[in-house]
């Protein structure tokens, strides 16, 4: 009986020690998420339409579009930055038809992603509607493509169109950047699968010379470098 009591006390003491050890253990900090390898920064050549001698958007508006694109792309290893700033003539500030969109091809530059900022952009499939942005392919030469963003666009529109440029289609998931359905701007993001697609597309664009890293982009002859 004595031995049984001593054995029981020993078991209880060991159990108590184990419980105390667990309760006193400090939680281990979580390892930060592993970021994908950084790809070279891809240059954006941005042309802003002018009306009455002034751009159709402010510098602050344009900077926010670029900043939002950078914020949402960089966690997936894709980097973009404005490399050039140009003017678009007033006759191309309001795009009403597919022919108008095709007309922007005369301003396309090589080795960059061309972005055109216009006053308004009508939907060519349903003329009753206006669009905030579009990734457009020249109909007679589908290899020549560019992004068009209207002055009415929300801050993430450029990023949405870059998502198309880097290979993603539309999504039906609420708050995905490639979806039209939003209920919380703070949750808008790409998912991992989209990130993989964008990195693969970016590598292909770089390897084919369709775009070049921003630090290897030649300056246009006879032009001043863009203002910050």
Describe the structure.
The chain is built from 5 helices and 8 strands. It is globular. It starts with a helix and ends in a 21-residue tail after the last helix. The strands form 2 sheets. Strands 1, 2, 3, 5, 7 and 8 form a 6-stranded mixed sheet that branches. Residues 19-23 have low confidence and may be disordered. It has a domain at 42-155 and 204-209: Collagenase (Catalytic Domain) (3-Layer(aba) Sandwich), CATH 3.40.390.10. Helix 2 (59-73) packs across helix 4 (157-165). The chain is of the alpha/beta class. Helix content is 30%, strand content 18%.
Keywords:
6-stranded mixed sheet, two-stranded parallel sheet, 30% helix, 228 residues, Collagenase (Catalytic Domain), globular, alpha/beta, single chain
Uncertain regions spanning at least 5 consecutive residues: 19-23
In DSSP terms (H or I, runs of 4 or more residues), the helix count works out at 5
Mean residue pLDDT? 88
Beta strand count: 8
Q: Which of globular, elongated, flat, extended, rod-shaped describes the shape? A: globular
Question: How does the helix and strand content classify structurally?
Answer: alpha/beta
* CATH superfamily membership of the domain at 42-155 and 204-209: Collagenase (Catalytic Domain)
- Which radius of gyration do the C-alpha atoms yield? 27 Å
Q: What is the top-level CATH class of the domain at 42-155 and 204-209? A: Alpha Beta
CATH topology of the domain at 42-155 and 204-209: Collagenase (Catalytic Domain)
Order of helices and strands: HEEHEEHEEEEHH
The CATH architecture of the domain at 42-155 and 204-209 comes to 3-Layer(aba) Sandwich
Distance separating the two termini = 88 Å
DSSP helix fraction: 25-40%
Per DSSP, what share of the residues sits in E-state strands of 2 or more residues? Answer: 15-25%
């Amino acid at each position: 009986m004595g031995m049984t009591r001593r054995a029981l006390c020993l078991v209880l003491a060991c159990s108590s020690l184990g419980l105390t050890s667990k309760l006193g253990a400090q939680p281990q900090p979580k390892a930060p998420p592993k970021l994908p390898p950084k790809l070279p920064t891809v240059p954006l050549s941005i042309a802003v339409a002018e009306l009455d001698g002034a751009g159709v958007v402010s510098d602050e508006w344009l900077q926010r579009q670029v900043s939002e694109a950078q914020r949402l792309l960089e966690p997936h290893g894709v980097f973009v930055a404005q490399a050039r700033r140009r003017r678009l003539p007033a006759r191309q500030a309001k795009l009403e038809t597919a022919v108008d969109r095709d007309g922007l091809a005369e301003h396309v530059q090589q080795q960059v992603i061309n972005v055109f900022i216009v006053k308004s952009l009508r939907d060519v499939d349903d003329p009753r509607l206006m669009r905030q942005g579009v990734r457009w392919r020249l109909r007679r030469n589908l290899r020549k493509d560019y992004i068009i963003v209207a002055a009415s666009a929300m801050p993430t529109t450029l990023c949405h169109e870059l998502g198309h440029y880097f290979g993603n289609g539309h999504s039906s998931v609420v708050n995905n950047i490639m979806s039209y359905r939003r209920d919380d701007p703070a949750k808008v993001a790409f998912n991992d699968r989209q990130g993989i697609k964008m990195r693969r597309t970016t590598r292909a664009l770089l390897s084919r010379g369709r775009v070049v890293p921003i630090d290897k982009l030649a300056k246009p002859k006879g032009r001043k470098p863009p203002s910050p």
